[in-house]
Each structure stands twice: as C-alpha cells, then as structure tokens.
Amino acid sequence: MKMKTAVIYASSHGTAEKVAEKIQKGLGGEGISTINLKTNKNIDLSLFDNIVIGGSIHAGSVQGCVKEFCKKNMVDLLQKRIALFICAMNEPEYEQELKGAFPEMLFNYAVCKKVVGGEFNFDKMNFLERVIVKKVSGISETVEKIDNTAIDEIIASLK
Predict the structure, then answer these.
(1) How many independent structural domains does the chain possess?
(2) Could you tell me if 33 and 9 are in contact, meaning their C-beta atoms sit under 8 angstroms apart?
(3) What is the CATH number of the domain that holds 148?
(4) Residues 6 or more apart whose Cβ sits within 8 Å of residue 98
(5) pLDDT at position 60, please?
(6) Which domain holds residue 30?
(7) Each residue of 83-103: b (16+ CB within 10 Å) or e?
C-alpha cells in the first residue's frame, strides 16, 4: 500500500507553494496532497503517513500559521514521518532560521529538514516589502535561488 503524504505549507509570495508543488511531483503526485495553511486551517492528519511542513522566512521568522499549526498538532505530528523546509534568502542565517521556524521537539524528530533557498519576487511584493528587501539585501530586482538538490533530498527522505 502506498503511503499517503501531505505537503502542508504557507506562502507569502508563492515560493513555498512552488517548492510544495515540486515536492508533490517528485513524490509521484498520486496520493500526495498539497495543503495551503492560509486557506485550509482544519487538516485531518489521520489521513496521512508522511507530512512535509514548510514556509518562508520574512524578517527572520516563518509565517505565524506554520508555527501555530505545528504547536496545535504536535501530538499527531510526532506519530508521523515528518520532513521540514523553509524558503530563505539570508544564507548566513540559514541554520538559525531553520531551527527557529519549528518547535524544537518537532525539529529534532523530523527525518529531514532543509533550507531550500528562495526568491525575491518584486512583482508580488508591496512597496514597503520592496524597500526593505533592497535595503537589507542590496537586491533590487527579482531573483530566484531555489535549491533543487535540497528539494530532492526531502523527496528521497520520504521514499
């Protein structure tokens, strides 16, 4: 019997969603559900054997709904095979941001945890976000740095 997997994510500008879809395709697509936490708050985890949880880092933190989901479902999550990912662009802070994105118990339990790179999509940012990104990163146009190797490692950990 094929294991059912949920790829649960929150995305602000579409990067985490793009990564969730790559993971879904990489796992074979069938029996793999992608679930956006911003539009689906009540997820029946009993339907799944494997859970991938991901989000993106903004100003050093993952979306609140990702942290909230993990805390609220901790008991159920600790009975599944778990992989974690974040989309992030501040390379010197990758490890710290990855650890800080998820509750410590879940982080330590996960079979795989990866920073999958990210992107600055200026077309999807509001004015303030563009100003902050330019000031903090020095980048002033759309750039994509998605790490497909890290995505492949997440996929391999669940096969």
Answers:
(1) 1
(2) no
(3) 3.40.50.360
(4) 84, 86, 88, 107, 113, 114, 115
(5) 87
(6) 5-158
(7) bbbbbbbeeeebeebbebbbe
91/84 Cα distance (integer angstroms):
17
* Other beta carbons less than 10 A from residue 128's beta carbon: 8
> Could you give the C-alpha distances from 67 to 1, 32, 53, 73, in angstroms and in order?
31, 22, 10, 10
The DSSP output letter for 70 is H
Global pTM reads 0.93
Reduced to 3 states (helix: H, G, I; strand: E, B; else coil), residue 51 is strand
Cβ contact 119:15 at 8 Å: yes
Q: CB–CB of 53/9 below 8 Å? A: yes
Lookup: tokens for 74: 């901790």
Give CA torsion, residues 120, 40, 2, 159, to 10 deg: 30
Residue 143 exposure: Cα atoms within 13 Å on the Cβ side: 13
Report the half-sphere exposure of 47 (CA within 13 A, side-chain side): 11
Q: What is the pLDDT of residues 49-101, one digit of tens each?
A: 999 999 999 888 999 999 999 999 999 999 999 999 999 999 999 999 999 99
**Token digits of residue 151:** 């995505």
